[in-house]
Amino acid sequence: MQQSLPQAAAGTQGMRLTSVSKSYGATVALESVSLTIEPGQVQAILGENGAGKSTLVKILSGVVTPNTGIMTLEGQNYAPRSLLQARHIGVSTAFQELSLLPNLSVAQNFFLPRSLKQQLIITSPKQMTRRAEAILADHGVQDISPHACVDTLSLAARQRVEIVRAMHYRPRLLLLDEPTGALADVDWLFRLIRRLTAQGTAVLYISHRLAEIREIASHAMVLRSGKTISTVDLKRVTNADIFEMMVGRRSTHAQARGRPSPSHPPGAALTANDLGGQNFSDISFELRRGEILGVAGLEGQGQRELFRTLAGLMRHDAGQMLLRDREVILRSPRHALGIHGGVAFVPEDRKSEGIFPTLSAGANITQSMLHHLSRLGFIRRDKERRAVKSVAPRVELDERYLSFKISALSGGNQQKALIARALLTGASTLLLFDPTRGVDVGTKEVIYQAIKAFVDNGGAVLIYSTDLAELQTLVDRCLVMYRGRIVADLPRDKLDEGQMVGLMTGNTGE
Asked: Among 102, 104, 115, 438, which residue's beta carbon has the most beta carbons within 10 A?
């Protein structure tokens, strides 16, 4: 039974949390967390998936009510009972798992639910669209139409709409939960944050990308297992120090660069010869067995369509695609899995394209293999359990989570399940589209190790990432895409971030 929150003393400015806790039965999600965010300040929150960050965001957003503790906003007791009430009081949130309604337009999403209740001065669709267009322009977004249906937008575009919607309310406290997970232009977001903080808005910024946090915030609170470990001055701690606070041990990967050259006999796993399709053309490359090949590019340069074509989700209309030196025309992802060694795809948006939210984590892992696990139309549960238990350790997915509904797991554990699904297929080639988006450093290490083990056993990996540091650390070579074409094929020792950014923005000279 929830306890009522005590009344707070007046006079405190900004947002203050004192001994806030939240539990679900015997599970403690947040334990006695205290935090102060002053007006005009950017306060960062760091922690592994499952550390309590999402619970904290939900409490501040009014989605979840804490069991105990005091919260104040500008000296007044703060105890919202809904997202709308929190927004009315002055707290606005851009969620990691986007909260936009996919079947409505950008403009309709901006004004929900007030437009449906006819509480806005804007009453006609034309007026609503004009107002939405002005809001987008005010936030530096010129390439997204207010008429566009949200489900037609790329993940990066949806992320920007989510952020703009949260910001345009001019909140006193803005909550940003992994806001750059799908963004290529981080500078755009930082310009907007600095504009808001100059006006006195406080910002709570949650991200796993330490370089970003160091640029936008001076201090960070570290959570582990629902508890506050420390609030640190970012200028006084190293990344290794932060990692140790987050996970309780030193990083074994963060300082490592690259890996030994592939030792397997040479051979092409996946080849593209002058491949062309929607939003890309003249794509030629060879992915060899035992190799990790990276792809870098700003949003909308054709990389998404290229991966989906290679996975059988889209058709190419020019050139050739070869699997193990044999030309193929893929009809579907299932076809891609079953032909010439097999290609398995992990998409960028696990929420809408990856997981089956009503099924258990174990059932999600076996979805691509049900035809091997069934007999006479019935799934053999014993065989399914053995299959799941054989692959879960490869991604360090705790066995106790396998029976949980996957929607109840943290984003990191959901991503582990998707990687496990791809590994379980037995495919010889993996296509990974931003596989560490929105996961903590501990989960990243697990994914990196799973990728390396896969290629060390003769597999091949094509990986796109929005994190250039990740590509520099992980891959053997990296393709750079610009305007739908490959403009560079860089070996590991040439992966200079400055040069890569130049190539990604169209500067192909020295």
From this structure: 438
